[in-house]
Amino acid sequence: MHTISDYQDNFLAYLSEKNTIKEPKNLYEPITYILNLGGKRLRPVLVLMASEIFDTPYQKALDAALAVEVFHNFSLIHDDIMDGAPLRRGKETVHKKWDVNTGILSGDAMLINAYQLFENYDGDIYKALTSLFTKTAIEVCEGQQYDVDFEDRDDVTIAEYLKMIEYKTAVLVGAALKMGAIIAEAGMEDQERIYDFGRLLGIAFQLKDDYLDAFGDPETFGKQVGGDIIENKKTFLYLKALENGSDEEKRQLEGLFSLKDVNIEEKIETVKSIYDSTESTQATRQEIERYTNLAFETLNDLNVSEEKKILLQQFGKKLMNRTV
C-alpha cells in the first residue's frame, strides 16, 4: 500500500499529463483552470486507495480516478454559477473569470469527458463503472435540486437536510471507493461495505464543510467564510439552532434568513452568535463525530487486513480534523 501523499502525487502527475489545452481554447482553458486550482483530491485518492485495498495496482484505477475528479469539478462549476459564488479554492470561479455561458459549456464538456474515461475499461468492469457513475451523477443532481428548493422553504427538517447532503456530496465519495473495488474485482459484499464507508464519511465530510463555512479561518478555508449564511442556506447548524433556540432566537434567526439586503458582516456575526448560544455549534461537531464513527464501524466486516482498515480510518480522521 502507498501513503495518501503517494496517491495524491501520482494522481496529480497523471492529471498533468492528461489535462492539456486543446482547441477551441475558450472551451478547454476553463477546464484546465479549475482542474489546476488544487483542492484535497479526496475522491480520486479514494479510487486509487480502494483498488490497492483489494490488491490491485493503483495504476489500473487512474482513469476512473480522473473521471471522478473531472465530474466533481464539473459539478463545482455549475454549483458556483447557481450560487453566484465569487471564489473557489481562493481563486476566481470559472464564471467570474470568463462568463456564465463559458462556465456552462465547459462544465458540460467535462461531464462528457468523464464518461469517455470509462471507455478505457473492458467488459463487465466498464458496465459496472458506468452504471454506478450514472446512478451517482443523477443523485448528485437531485441533491443539488433539494439544496436549491430548501432556500425557499421554511419547513426543512434535519432528516431532509441529511438526505440532501447524502445525495449532493456523500454518494460520490462512496462511489469513488466502490469504483476502486470494482476495478479490483472485489466481491459484491465488499463493494457495498466500502461504498457505505464512503457514503457515511461523505456525510460527515459535508457537515464539517458546513461547519467550516461558518467557523473556518478565511486564510485557510479557500472560500468566502459565511457564504452559507449570506445565501440563507438551511444547514445543520441553522436547523439545529431552530430546534434548540428560544422563541426570541428562532424569531431573530428566521428574520435574518428571510433577508438579503442587510449588512453582510453583521448578519454573519449575529447568526454565528445564535449558533453558539443555542449549542448548535456543539451539536454539529457531535454529528460529525457520529457519522465518522458509523463509517468506521462498516470496516469491521470488510474482508481486508487490519493494516488496510487502519489506513482507511487514518484517512477519515485526517478529513475530520482538517481546517480547509
Description:
With 324 residues, this protein is an all-alpha fold. It is 74% helix and 1% strand. The chain has a single domain (4-320), classed as Farnesyl Diphosphate Synthase, CATH 1.10.600.10. The protein has 16 helices and 2 strands. It is globular, with a radius of gyration of 20 Å. The chain has a two-stranded antiparallel sheet. α3 (42-53) packs across α8 (158-183), α4 packs antiparallel against α8 and α15 packs antiparallel against α16 (306-320). The chain has helices at residues 4-18, 25-35, 42-53, 62-83, 94-97, 100-118, 123-150, 158-183, 188-215, 218-221, 227-230, 236-244, 247-256, 264-277, 280-297, 306-320; strands at 87-88, 91-92.
Question: How large is the share of residues in beta strands?
Answer: under 5%
Low-confidence stretches: none
CATH class type: Mainly Alpha
How is the CATH topology named? Farnesyl Diphosphate Synthase
Structural class category: mainly alpha
Spatial strand arrangement across the major sheet: 1-2
CATH superfamily: Farnesyl Diphosphate Synthase
Oligomer: single chain
Count the helices. How many?
16
- Average predicted local confidence, pLDDT: 93
How many domains in all? Answer: 1
Q: What order do the helices and strands follow?
A: HHHHEEHHHHHHHHHHHH
User: Which percent range fits the helix content?
Assistant: over 70%
CATH architecture: Orthogonal Bundle
* Largest sheet data: 2 strands, antiparallel
Computed over alpha carbons, the radius of gyration is: 20 Å
Q: Give the terminus-to-terminus CA distance.
A: 26 Å
Q: Tell the overall outline.
A: globular
